Protein 1
Amino acid sequence: MACALTLRRDGHDVVVLDPQQPGEGASFGNAGIIANCTVDPLGMPGIVSRVPGMLLDPMGPLSIRWRYLPRIAPWLMQLVAASRPARVEAISCALAALLGNAVEIWADLVRGTQGEHYLTARGWIHGFETETAFAAMQPIIELRRRRGVRVEILGPHDLHDLEPAAAPIFRRVVYLPDTAFVTSPVRLVRALADTFVAAGGRFAQVRATGFGEAAPGLHQVTTEREAYPCDRAVIAAGVWSRPLAAMLGSRVPLDTERGYHVMLRTPEHPPRHPISSGERKFVIVPMLDGIRITGGVELAGLHAPANFTRIRRMVGHARRILPGLGRDIVSEWLGFRPSMPDSLPVIGRSPDRPWALFAFGHGHVGLTAAASTARVIADLVAERPPSIDLQPFRPDRFRF
């Protein structure tokens, strides 16, 4: 929707094809954090030693289901290859270029729209109950600082002044003051859609099934019902982008990171900031509809049954952080992050079909990078030089 609205504002006639209503994908249940600080990839040095634990501990923050191991094994091998120190440094530079101005670009995208009401410019708190967990965070802190991210280290008294709702259980606090968060990701996406339609954009609730030629020099996207002629096509279908890219000649190692959340009622004294647990790798986010608890990665594909055991267990830990939080879960959700093994999205023209543009595979930074990616796509469609180097994000960077 960010791409569609940006292109429409750029003067293009735009049709969005999606089998779901706006906001019903991964954005429905994500943490809502505009995490411009997340320049660290999933595959950090030493991840290879963690793979056995991923298989043996289904309650860990990063787990793999045994049945999915044969399917995910090539992706894991590429993840390990991307975790070499030199690659991590290069990946973080690319992420910093894409994410660095994310909050400002988002503010510009939603300015004057209903979406403006959901964007909250407050920082992000990471609390650590032990020195061991805090020490484990040091490589990420140092990497973020090398990329220009502002990181503040606070003590317990500082935290009380910043976030009075939090219990005094943290020995160390990492505060990221320049992040923002969204109080309702699904409403934000719907606001983008409403603004897009009001500006003359069109939306069709259909599934794209292929591509073809409508006439000499004119392309088309085929759907379950009809074909849509076009000069350009943008593939921004999240976890469902891989088969569409393959139809256009590009094989990309896109896979699925499953993410869970639970919603609790808003307590009498809600937090003002998102708060993460450094030990247990979950985040508490205050939203319009309640308190969202989310976090962790499960590698199990699109079709395995949901397992809410881990995220439900986090409710008790969340209540230690926020003593006024209730016990009753109001709702639960499972969603699918479209993830590349090197933690870099695919952004750019299709190598074989230059009229098609790719914008998918953002993993944990899909919400953060949406507005920035939309600007890049608009530049490519208009034949303007993009503001960032797209080489690290090119679709053909993986060889099979």
Protein 2
Amino acid sequence: MKPFFVRDIAIDPPLILSPMAGVTDYVFRRLIKRRGGVGLVVSEFISVEGLTRGNPKSKRQMRFDEEERPFAVQIFGGRPERMAMGAEMAEEVGADILDVNCGCPAPKVVKNGGGSGLLREPDRLEDILRAIKRAISIPLTLKLRTGYSDSSINVVDVAKMAEQCGVEHIQVHGRTREQGYKGLANWDLIRQVKEAVSIPVSGNGDITSIDYGMEKWRESGVNGILIGRGAMQNPWIFRQFEDVLAGRDPYQPDLAEKKAVLLEFFEMCLGEMPEIVALGKMKQLAGQFTKGLPGGAVFRQTLYHSHSEQEILDNIEAYFTGLNGDRVRSEESSADTDLEFASCESASTVAAAI
């Protein structure tokens, strides 16, 4: 798969860290970016009502580091004039791209006319996109779902309208607002969007493995893919995709590197936020990161009941020490089996010679 461009910004490799509320903050984005293979990172979705009223949290959410570039700020809201003001603020802080959220299914967002609620009001969405386009000079992109409900699938029509408004990249999450995060994403609808517009289209939904991701990528013909939860479970997933795209075997981190990533994340959290918040962030990441690892469920329980920095560190140390012990015992057992097999084979050879 080739890199694609959002105006003059290369998305190379064509892999995007999908924005996730409460997850893709300043710390998590840098953690993932440092593992390699990410072509674009996006902020958490940011309320323009908060931004334009000077809310400190909203302003903090726009913070980014040079190592994150290209970097997109994603905003949400239902009022064209406020969305335009928020977009201007994102450009002023140095964002490379302004992304509009038309996909969040949260009731409080939808109730106020933002997120996927805009899919019910395409005329209002058009007003918002045109207002933003007049206000900024950086590229405008759009993240949307396939429709508000199964009975109102309108993603293709909305995508065509967005292209006419000057949107330069469309990202489609293959579920309706009604679905939330249940069921499987509909990649056929994503393919239909790709075929309907001439601007780059990226797909999103259920990409937690390389094989599934490559299959959906080929079937839909999209320019790029977004990965969200898959990055929480496997921070190396972008590097692995990049390896496969380049014809290499996907990178496989060892236990020492997995432990180091957890410690790195925790250290960054402690440096950026109060300890109680850092503990919550650590539990959130570890809950996803240890899925599928031996003893992961027990480790998560001990971590959830940790109430201090030292408890977290002690539990991580104990868990990975145990994993290393299991690995060594497994290797020794395998070596004994190989030795026994070799001895039997030698004995058989000698017996045959006699």
Protein 3
Amino acid sequence: MHIVISGAGEVGSFLAAKLVSENHNIVLIDSDPERIASAGGKYDLLALVGNGSSPQVLEKASINAADMFIAVTNHDEVNIVASMVASRYGVPRIITRVSNEEYFAPHHGLHQEALGIDLVVNPEKLCADELMRLLMARELIESQTFADGLVQLVGFEVEEGNPLIDHTLAELAGHPGVQRVRLVVIERNQQSIIPHGDELILAGDHLYVMGAVEQIPQALQMAGISQTRARRVVIAGGGKTARYLALRLEAESVDVRLIEENRERSEELSRDLHHTLVIQGKARNIQTLRNAGIEACDAFVALTNEDEDNILASILAKQCGAAKVTALIQHPEYQALVTSLNLIDATVSTQLIAAGVILKLIRRGHIESVAALHEIKAEAIELVATAGSKILKKPLSELNFPDKAIIGAIVRNGQPLVANGDQQIEPGDHVIVFTLPEAISKIEKFFST
């Protein structure tokens, strides 16, 4: 596809790199010459300096031939106007990043459809939603749901003393706690392993398990993982994501303490958040953390605009006694470093979350949802099998499915099924596939007609 992306920030650059790797024709537009020079030097794409809402710039990007336009600058107004211009050129699908919910609030009468926008993405709100899932089960490092909430994917670390250590998957298969769940990947030493029956579980592994939602608690219990929800949370940073998260936590009667360095923003948050203690100060300062009660908190979440500050504040919070620390990390190189050194319990990335939503519209075939995962280069994709798909013709054991992918769950007529070798996909089934990037195109072919 020919895809034009306006905005070479974290979300735009991440999407451009991913889509180029999948052989799409990408044009990346940004008003910052340094960003464009960087992207043009790294990726096989056309990089243009300019305003994404300028007709002249869009014509240089061959907007008339575009299959999709994605506006993901950090400015809502620029994204909305750019999308309106792209709509005038007849672009079939338009995706727009809008962080301010007021623009499309029902009482304002502004409708995305009237502007030609197919999908509005609010990365900060999506990130807050994911953080809530992690905080409501604070030993997890990943939590996603599929098939209208019927299937869940969870990730957790295997710590020393865990009962799973030194057991193979075959040995665990008969246990009642895992009969309706499936281990879909093991992350070990920054390598993603699609496991087989003889795979041995080791201390330090990050395991990703998928299955029926009602079966996940039992599987986690067997794995020695509790699903204790956080009762006291300290948040570092007062941006949009932090505000969304604080509001969500307040609604769950969680004791929230928020640290914000800027005085004016602190005062604004104090007015908006009625049940949150707002503390002005630097979260990377030990005394500020102690003033927020870091020693007694169940969870610390670092959500400032700087990865370095989030990493340092999280390490300090851990040393001061925080039970679980989670950091917002946007740069992939930092993500890999933090994961390899095991410095932080969990990470989130607005770029990955936004990309997962956007990729849903880009993938070929009948794709219902896409979840890009934080600590591994993998995606969990929910597809719908249709009549004529290659996936229907044989039992799973005979499909010659790619080695870098695994079917985690099947949902048929609202009922989750175990994805074993004897199972055969039927038309209308929702199939959740866990796949590494190199297998995505092969997966799509299995579901094409």
